Each structure stands twice: as structure tokens, then as C-alpha cells.
Amino acid sequence: MIRRRELMLAAAAAGSGSMAGLASASSAPEAEMTTHSRSSAQGFRLALGGGAAKAFAHIPILEVMDDLGVKPVEIAGTSMGSILGAFYASGMSGREIRQFAVDLFTQKTQLLQKLFLTDGRTWSSLFNVVRPAIIDPIVLFETVFPEDLAEQFSDLKLPMKIVATDFYTQSQVVLEEGPLLPAIAASSALPMLLTPVRIDGQVLIDGGFVNPTPFDVFQDDGIPTVAVDVTGSNFEERKSGLPTGLETWIGSFSITLHSLVAAKLACNQPDLLIEPPVGRFKTMEFFKVADIVKAAEPAGETFKRGLASLLENR
């Protein structure tokens, strides 16, 4: 159980935005504080990694923040991490996000009704076999996302960075201004499935190819970083026989993500790394959302203890 002093620290983190606003009214000695000492009191930043369906494991982390009454001062997200992070930064609670995700993927009739595109668009606007990929992610997300998702980055209640990959320069692109939905779509545009997204002349695909768990995109100013990585797999149950073509394609992408995260961690570490135990789930098992969230709940408790310790030691 978190002690009172730890909860007070958490409350201070939640109020960091107000603290920033008071900076201009501070006294002369306070104004002479170093950047590091000032930022240390301003909470934490949160990086939510990609991993397709396994990224539903982020939801218990968001719920714990609500229970503690804390908010990160900034969020970064890749792929599904950008989707869930954008929901949260738009003002949805962790429990609301859980309910939305479970309802979306367990009420299949309702999901199909949403995909009938009753706003006048045709199925060809969503599914088109002659495009670079089958599904237009912007049309898909407009169809199924909550109506109260922020339209612009500037409309978000929490600052956010979204990571995508520039296909032609093979480099990382960090999006943090302009329309929000195209940025999420770009970060989630898994090749062969979702069409690349063009933003400011750049052709963008899934951010997992360059930065699956983007804990290193924040400004280095002393504010601690919490990263939630969901790229791990559980190899205890080895199967015999060859995987299908689809399993090979998706599995290869998962291997790439996990290898990239491992290489990054060998060079640099977030202040707190959370790895929810959801490796036994397959990347595309979206209809197991309730099971994935349930399996990740122990990671919420790990996050709670780790965050309390992290803020106390700052």
C-alpha cells in the first residue's frame, strides 16, 4: 500500500502543470533553482510501446494513475501505444478506455455495424485491394474511435509525442502538432494491412520499425521516464510444425520490435521499465482484449510501487 507521503508526491506530480504556471511569480531565490531540481518535482513522463493487441496491457497502467490521482506531464506512444495514449490524453479515464476496448472487440455485431460506414462513404473507401495496403487507417479509425477524441494535438489535455517511420528515409519521425488522427494512423500503419499515411510530404508507416517503446524521445531535463514495453514473448510453450504465412509475417514483425527494444535498453534505460506479462498472447489476438487486460493487472501493481519509489527518491 502506498504511504501518505508517497501519495502527496503523486499529487504533486498531478499538479505539475499548475506549478509551471506559477514559475513567473516565483521569488528571486526560487528563480535561481537549477533546471534539474525544478523539473524533479514535476512528476514523470510516460512512454507506451507498440505491440498490436498485446498493447491492451497498457490499460491497467492508466487505471492505476487514475486511482492515485496522478497524470504524467507528457506521453509518448508508438502504434497501439499511440492510440491508447491519445485516448487518455484526450481525457478518457483508464476504466473508460478498458470499457471501450472490451465493448469494441467483444460485441462483434456492433463492430460490424460501425464498419458499414453509414455516413455516406462506401466500403471501397475502407477496403481496397489495389492500394498499397488493404485498409485505409484514417477511415478505419474515424469509424471506430470514440467521438470525443481530440481533433488536434493542441486540443489534448496532456502533451503527447507520436512516433512514426518515414518509409523513404528509413528514419524516425516524432509528431506533436497538427491533426491528431492522421498521426495516430501513421504510427499504426502496419505494412500490407494498413495504408501508409502522407503527412507534410513524408510517407509514414508504423513507428515500431524505428522505436517500438519510445522512452528516449523526451527532452533530457531531469524529469523521470516510465516506459511500458509489451514486445516480449513467452517461448515456454514451443510448438511443432511450421507457422502459416500470416503467422510468419506477424511473428517476424514482433521479433523485430522486441530486438529493437532490447538493443535500445542495452544502451539506455528509462527510470522505470514495466513489462506486463502478456507474452503468451499473439500479436493479432484483439478479440482476447479482456484476457489481455486481466493478465496485465499485476503490472499495474508493479507500476504503482515503482512510481511511488521513483517519485520519493527524486
From TrEMBL:
<feature type="active site" description="Nucleophile">
    <location>
        <position position="79"/>
    </location>
</feature>
<keyword id="KW-0732">Signal</keyword>
<feature type="short sequence motif" description="DGA/G">
    <location>
        <begin position="206"/>
        <end position="208"/>
    </location>
</feature>
<keyword id="KW-0378">Hydrolase</keyword>
<keyword id="KW-0443">Lipid metabolism</keyword>
<protein>
    <submittedName>
        <fullName>Phospholipase</fullName>
    </submittedName>
</protein>
<feature type="active site" description="Proton acceptor">
    <location>
        <position position="206"/>
    </location>
</feature>
<dbReference type="InterPro" id="IPR050301">
    <property type="entry name" value="NTE"/>
</dbReference>
<feature type="domain" description="PNPLA">
    <location>
        <begin position="46"/>
        <end position="219"/>
    </location>
</feature>
<feature type="short sequence motif" description="GXSXG">
    <location>
        <begin position="77"/>
        <end position="81"/>
    </location>
</feature>
<dbReference type="Pfam" id="PF01734">
    <property type="entry name" value="Patatin"/>
</dbReference>
<keyword id="KW-0442">Lipid degradation</keyword>
<dbReference type="InterPro" id="IPR006311">
    <property type="entry name" value="TAT_signal"/>
</dbReference>
<dbReference type="InterPro" id="IPR002641">
    <property type="entry name" value="PNPLA_dom"/>
</dbReference>
<dbReference type="InterPro" id="IPR016035">
    <property type="entry name" value="Acyl_Trfase/lysoPLipase"/>
</dbReference>
<feature type="signal peptide">
    <location>
        <begin position="1"/>
        <end position="25"/>
    </location>
</feature>
